[in-house]
């Protein structure tokens, strides 16, 4: 499980220059193109989500978990 004091960005989509820019600027970023679940968000301590070229529909439950942690 990720350290909850650290802000972690979930980058949904293929590897992109934006992803590299975030990393270069010191952001903690996890990238995936796979489907995600609320459990994935919780276990990785995600605090912010970017969907850029992501080919799956983001479900309300996953988005709500990212916003509220519940």
Secondary structure layout:
Elements (H helix, E strand, L loop, with lengths): L7 E5 L4 H8 L3 E5 L5 H6 L2 E6 L8 H9 L2
Parallel strand pairs: 1-2, 1-3
State the CATH architecture: 3-Layer(aba) Sandwich
Low-confidence spans: none
Oligomeric status of the shown chains?
single chain
Secondary structure category: alpha/beta
- Number of structural domains: 1
Order of helices and strands: EHEHEH
Inertia-based shape = globular
Radius of gyration: 12 Å
* Distance N to C terminus: 16 Å
Number of helices: 3
Q: Please, what is the average pLDDT?
A: 86
Look at the structure and give the CATH class.
Answer: Alpha Beta
Strand order of the largest sheet: 2-1-3
Largest sheet properties: 3 strands, parallel
The fraction of residues assigned to DSSP E strands is 15-25%
Helical proportion, percent range: 25-40%
Q: How many distinct beta strands? A: 3
